[in-house]
Design brief:
Layout (H helix, E strand, L loop, with lengths): L1 H24 L3 H9 L16 H11 L3 H8 L6 E3 L2 E5 L11 E7 L4 E8 L2 E6 L2 H8 L1
Antiparallel strand pairs: 1-2, 2-3, 3-4, 4-5
Length: 140
């Protein structure tokens, strides 16, 4: 009887490990984003359709909410993706909507998996940033 129970437990453990192993091998969003951005450094983000990639677009939509359209009009004037240490960023070159904002910049920190956008307006700078809690939970 003990052998039969042990056999059932062993079989169940093997079946469960088969379900869990693929999940454990899947790359994190941080690894995916780094793999996407690294080869694109120096390229025009519009030419390589960076902002249309689901991993980028979904995070920016969630981060910016109703400001997404305005910010994208600015960010799409950027002509290259740049990197400085763990920071990947794009900066708008000009404004197609001077009545709303002058410039915008998008930055992603590869160390913390945190994304932020700064928008320069006549009254100052508005910053949209993912909370550090999100970055920490993404690491876990």
């Amino acid at each position: 009887m003990r052998f039969r129970n042990a056999l059932k437990i062993a079989t169940l453990a093997i079946l469960l490990s088969g379900c869990i192993a693929p999940v454990m091998l899947m790359p994190s969003s941080q690894q995916l984003l780094r793999a996407l951005l690294t080869p694109l450094i120096g390229f025009d983000p519009n030419a390589v359709r960076l902002f249309e990639q689901p991993i980028v677009k979904e995070r920016m939509t969630a981060l910016l909410g109703t400001h997404y359209g305005m910010v994208m009009q600015l960010i799409e004037t950027a002509d290259k993706l740049e990197r400085e240490g763990p920071l990947f960023f794009v900066i708008s070159r000009y404004t197609p909507i001077p009545e709303l904002a002058e410039k915008a910049g998008l930055v992603w920190n590869a160390d913390t998996n945190q994304m932020a956008v700064a928008v320069l307006q006549g009254k100052g700078v508005e910053v949209f940033s993912e909370g550090i809690e999100k970055a920490v939970s993404a690491e876990i």
